[in-house]
Write a structure and sequence with these properties.
The chain has 15 helices and twelve strands. The protein has 370 residues and is an alpha+beta fold. It holds the Pfam family IMS_C.
């Protein structure tokens, strides 16, 4: 079942990719903007969130993170972990304006910029506009321009593809820069835990552990067909990522079509028992949506039955969801439209947002910030 490829062949696969990709990730973006604009907050544990039992943390300064505060955490939990934290209501109009300024800096160096959210983007600098001699020089220049012009810090990762560049940008956060050279990629990936790979959540990590796989290097001992049999289409992606292979190009101006999150239950459960998971997934989706420059209009609920049948229900309200609680309420209402036998059990639930509209063209967006 296992077939280990020679390490030379693995390295050759990466060396064939000659692109130079930078992933730039702003450090604690929302919290850093607040600290920059209010000097009294500098050095303080800042939590960007509305107070309340149903609020989630949008961002936490590195001072707050020392106490265990993280994005997507319930605000009440953050307050317990760090009672002296300064809570600041988010100001997304301001964050979007700063994000535009960051993007203007990117565009000085390349037109191939793919924003992932307000605070991170991929840049293809295989050919850069400023004549700098290497991708590393470009990344250093961008970080310095952000520091000098916006008084903020950013971390950057440089590699031959998007997947590796994104891992690299997180390696020396905050305010760091890390390069994964093509001939070093395999050695870098080999000892990493499997959950460092995009798409490997708790359930997939457990299934890999059942196969005796806990590190990225151990994935490479399996043939692609075996991984596909175990994980479906994602098995092919696992096979490639474990070898540092990612052929996805940087796509400038690619609008977000949807944001979603889903999870599989430890054991199949009844429909009425999905409340906690729906709320947890809604919090993740809502937090991700706040980083988008556009507003989602449609809420989607996805369910997979114990027999692997997939059901979806969607709703486009007159006004887009204005809070995580709105999103949860709509998702629970959609659940009521699932008319199956009372004893039907489900193995998976997912929450999504779609039908994104530009804030400049959608007058309803303005209502959210009156």
């Amino acid at each position: 079942m296992r077939a280990a490829l020679p390490i030379e062949a693995e390295q050759t696969a990466i060396l064939m990719d000659t692109r130079k990709i930078i992933h730039v990730d702003m450090d604690a973006f929302y919290a850093s903007v607040e600290q920059r604009d209010t000097p009294q907050l500098r050095g303080q544990p800042v939590v960007v969130a509305w107070r309340g039992k149903r609020s989630v943390v949008c961002a936490a300064s590195y001072e707050a993170r020392k106490f265990g505060v993280r994005s997507a955490m319930p605000a009440v939990q953050a307050e317990r972990l760090c009672p002296h934290a300064v809570f600041i209501p988010p100001d997304f109009l301001r964050y979007r304006a700063v994000s535009r300024s960051v993007r203007e800096i990117f565009l000085r160096h390349t037109d191939l910029v793919e924003p992932l959210s307000l605070d991170e983007a991929y840049l293809d600098v295989t050919k850069n506009k400023t004549g700098l001699p290497s991708a590393t020089h470009v990344a250093r220049t961008i970080r310095e321009q952000i520091r000098q012009e916006l008084q903020l810090t950013a971390s950057a990762g440089i590699a031959a593809n998007k997947f590796l560049a994104k891992i690299a940008s997180d390696w020396r956060k905050p305010d760091g820069l890390f390069v994964i050279k093509p001939d070093e990629a395999i050695d870098f990936l080999t000892p990493l835990a499997v959950n460092r790979l995009p798409g490997v959540g708790k359930v997939t990590a457990r299934r890999l552990a059942d196969l005796g796989v806990r590190t990225v290097g151990e994935i490479r001992s399996f043939e692609s067909g075996v991984l596909q049999q175990q994980f479906g289409r994602y098995g092919i992606r696992l096979f490639e990522l474990a070898r540092g292979i990612d052929d996805n190009p940087v796509e400038p101006n690619r609008p977000t079509q949807s944001i979603s999150a889903e999870d599989t239950f430890e054991s199949d459960i009844l429909l009425e028992e999905t409340d906690a998971m729906i709320r947890s997934l809604a919090e993740k989706v809502w937090l991700a949506s706040l980083k988008e420059p556009r507003t989602a209009r449609t809420v989607v609920l996805k369910l997979k039955t114990a027999e692997f049948s997939i059901l979806t229900r969607s709703h486009t309200p007159a006004w887009p969801p204005a809070s995580c609680e709105d999103l949860v309420s709509i998702a629970l209402a959609l659940r009521e439209k699932v008319l199956l036998s009372p004893g039907q059990k489900f193995r998976l639930v997912g929450i999504g947002l779609s039908n994104f509209r530009d804030a400049m063209t959608d007058p309803m967006e303005n209502r959210l910030f009156d």
